[in-house]
C-alpha cells in the first residue's frame, strides 16, 4: 500500500484498540513503517490525521448502507437503518465518537453523503404520505434521537448496554414522526401539506420562484398545524 493508506490503516487500528490517546505520531509511524515527517506532510498534524480516519469511517459506513436494497416500506427501512446505526456505534465505539463530534470547519463530504442518503429515505416516507412532520424537522429529530441513544449506550460499561434501550427510543421516535397509514387520509391540512411538499420537485407547471413560495407556505402550514 501507499504510505497514506498504511498510515490511515495504522491510525484506525490504534484507535480501535486503545482509543484516541493511543493514536500518537510515534505509534502510528512505527505501525505504518514510515517516518513521523511523512505523517505531517500528508495530514498536517494529529487533528488532520484523525479527521481523515473519521472520513474513512463515514465512507465505509455509508457504503455498507448503499449496498442494502430498499424495500417497499420506507418506514421499515428507517427502522432497519436505526438498528444498523446503533450496531455500528457499538462495534466501533472510539471511531463513532470521533465521527460524530462537532467540527468547526463543517461536515466532510463523506458525512454529507450519509446525510443525503437519510434525506432521500425521508423523502420516500413523505412521498408515501406517512410523514407526520416536515421533512427537515423529522430528519433532525431522528438524527438527534439516534445519535443520543448510541452515545448513551457507549457511555455505559459493555455489560450494562441493554439493546432494549435503543429499541424503545427507536420505536418512540419513529411513532412521533411517522404514521401507520398515509397521513393524507386523516383530517386536517398538515399531513396533506407534508405530502405535497415532498412531491413539489416533480411539479412542472410552476416556475422556480412559484415553487419556492409554495414550499414556504406548505412548510408553514405543516409546522403550525403539526
From TrEMBL:
Keywords: DNA-binding, Transcription, Transcription regulation. The keyword Ligase does not apply. Transmembrane segments: none annotated. The keyword Cell membrane does not apply. One of its GO terms (molecular function) is DNA-binding transcription factor activity. Residues 1-61 form the HTH tetR-type domain. This is TetR/AcrR family transcriptional regulator. InterPro entries: Homeodomain-like_sf, HTH-type_TetR-like_transc_reg, HTH_TetR. It comes from the Bacteria. PROSITE patterns: HTH_TETR_2. Residues 24-43 bind DNA. Gene3D superfamilies: Tetracycline Repressor, domain 2.
